[in-house]
Write a structure and sequence with these properties.
Helices cover 63% and strands 5% of the residues. It is mainly α and 521 residues long. The chain folds into three domains: 142 residues, no CATH class; 225 residues, Clc chloride channel (Orthogonal Bundle); 134 residues, CBS-domain (Roll). A hairpin with a 2-residue loop joins β4 and β5. The chain is elongated. The model has no long low-confidence stretch (mean pLDDT 86).
């Protein structure tokens, strides 16, 4: 309670109104090339998450570290006046360095930045991220000399266990889907049920404290308890809790406690973050994966059908659930291999990661970071759509227009046409509300009929709008509107008041420049 309360105060008074505890906002900003991370986030995430997790909150430090590293990257870019395009790459460098420093896993750091944050970047972008990740690993090792993040050793895998790796991968995928959906459901429920942040802090914090009293091994990041699984010390699950210590010590009871830990870990992680604390789902996903792999292997072993190596399944379970939650299969393979010393398990890791990724996609098409963005239609389904969503309509407006009123005579219209030679004229009322537009071709056609043109007004010549855009729409919305209406010019209005035109030729020119910019990277 003290931890999430202090963390909440840091966020409220130092984080600012744009403070985000999830990578979703960073992914959206990178997707739309709107890179403007406040300098304060270079330290607020570190302090806020340290208070939450260090005092017992059940969350990970990786997401806050990635956000802090990204803030450092964009701050360096701003200081040296580097362009927005390459500033995005600096954000990737900061994120890769953060993961590399935490886990002593430079390869996983680069892959995480490439798969999760910057999936559209070219292979050439990996070079600076590799350098940043490698340097971070060196500096981290100099500071933390003999206390490396290392969960276990390697053992050989058996070919007769291969079918069980496939089954374990499917189980991990289902657990990953449960993690994603449960996290969103609980977070939404908390925010809707308790709108006041102070009330949410009190209610959520109280429930969190109760659950952590029953399951004390769910406190913090949980890596120490994963290490105990690798060491074969299972009785700690029962002995660490005042309530659970009364239960008998047998294999079935331990499997039940492990299963409970898998499902409750998501709840306490959501309560930690959404009650007011700070942290991420990175560590909980690895914790849940380790316990899922162990529970699967132990359950199979209890049947007596085959004797599975439980250590190996703890390793691949971490990879399977991580991949299902993050949708980063390569990161899952190399991160788990690096932190467990499990490169000898590379083949099982590849099997579990690929099967878990495929199976999870069948039930939940988006990662935990992209789900909310995709459901709000903030991320395009393909590369072109994503590029168009980066640009707002208001940034591409043509505001050089000449107004016509509906009662203007044809003589006045021709005078305006002779003076300006515009392709289109907006017809507005006295409050500048958009009524329609008069196209150049219609004016020329009317001029060829002198016997009737003197009787025409702007109201007679104007075309009423089939589609109207808002200044807050993006270019993907504009492209859809152009396709639906088959026009060359679309009016842009703010609450009915006309503010400019968006021209189809300009939209295509912008699209071509975005493609060229993307291909050059």
């Amino acid at each position: 309670m003290v931890g999430i309360f202090l963390s909440f105060l840091v966020q409220r008074y130092f984080g600012g109104i744009r403070y985000s505890k999830s990578l979703s906002f960073l992914i959206l900003s990178l997707n739309r090339k709107r890179i403007n991370i406040p300098v304060s986030e270079t330290w607020t995430h570190a302090l806020s998450s340290a208070l939450s997790v260090g005092l017992g909150g059940s969350a990970g430090l990786e997401a806050p570290s990635v956000l802090a590293g990204s803030a450092i990257g964009t701050s360096v870019g701003s200081f040296f006046r580097i362009g927005k395009h390459h500033r995005s790459l600096l954000i990737g460098c900061g994120a890769a360095a953060a993961i590399s420093a935490i886990f002593d896993s430079p390869i996983a750091g680069v892959l995480f930045a490439a798969e999760v944050l910057l999936p559209e970047f070219a292979v050439s972008a990996l070079v600076p991220m590799m350098m940043s990740s490698a340097i971070a690993a060196v500096v981290s090792r100099l500071i933390i000399t003999d206390e490396r993040f290392f969960l276990g050793g390697s053992t050989l895998w058996q070919t007769n266990a291969i079918p069980y790796y496939f089954v374990c991968a499917a189980v991990c995928a289902l657990v990953g889907v449960y993690v994603i959906r449960s996290a969103y459901f609980l977070a939404d429920y908390l925010k809707k049920r308790f709108r006041s942040p102070w009330r949410r802090l009190f209610v959520g914090g109280t429930l969190l404290s109760l659950l952590l009293f029953i399951f004390p091994f769910l406190r913090g990041q949980g890596y120490i308890y994963v290490s105990k699984l690798f060491a074969g010390d299972l009785d700690f699950l029962r002995q660490s809790s005042v309530l659970l210590s009364w239960l008998p010590s047998n294999a079935l009871i331990l499997v039940i406690i492990v299963a409970a830990a898998i499902f409750v870990k998501v709840i306490v992680s959501v309560l930690t973050v959404d009650s007011g604390g700070d942290g991420g789902i990175f560590a909980p996903a690895m914790f849940i994966g380790a316990f899922t792999g162990f529970a699967f292997a132990r359950s199979i072993n209890l049947t007596g059908v085959i004797e599975l190596n439980e250590f190996n399944f703890i390793v691949v379970g971490m990879c399977g659930v991580f991949t299902a939650v993050m949708r980063a299969p390569l990161t899952g393979i190399f991160l788990i291999a690096e932190v467990t010393g499990g490169y000898i398990l590379l083949v099982p890791l590849m099997i579990v990661s690929s099967v878990s990724h495929f199976t999870a996609n069948l039930f939940e098409p988006h990662s935990i970071y992209r789900k909310a963005l995709a459901e709000k239609n903030l991320l395009g389904k393909d590369r072109e759509q994503s590029m168009l969503r980066r640009q707002a309509v208001r940034l591409n407006l043509d505001k050089k227009y000449h107004i016509l009123r509906p009662q203007d005579s044809f003589k006045h219209i021709t005078r305006m046409f002779d003076l300006h030679q515009d392709e289109v004229f907006p017809v507005l009322d006295e409050e500048n509300n958009f009524l329609g537009m008069v196209l150049r071709n219609k004016i020329i056609t009317a001029m060829l009929n002198p016997e009737v043109c003197d009787y025409l007004l702007a109201f007679d010549l104007m075309d009423e709008p089939v589609e109207t855009l808002s200044q807050d729409d993006d270019l993907a919305d504009a492209m859809s509107a152009f396709d639906a209406s088959s026009v060359e010019h679309l009016p842009v209005c703010n609450k009915g008041v006309f503010i400019g035109f968006l021209h189809k030729d300009r939209l295509w020119a912008k699209y071509r420049s975005l493609i060229k910019e993307s291909n050059n990277f």
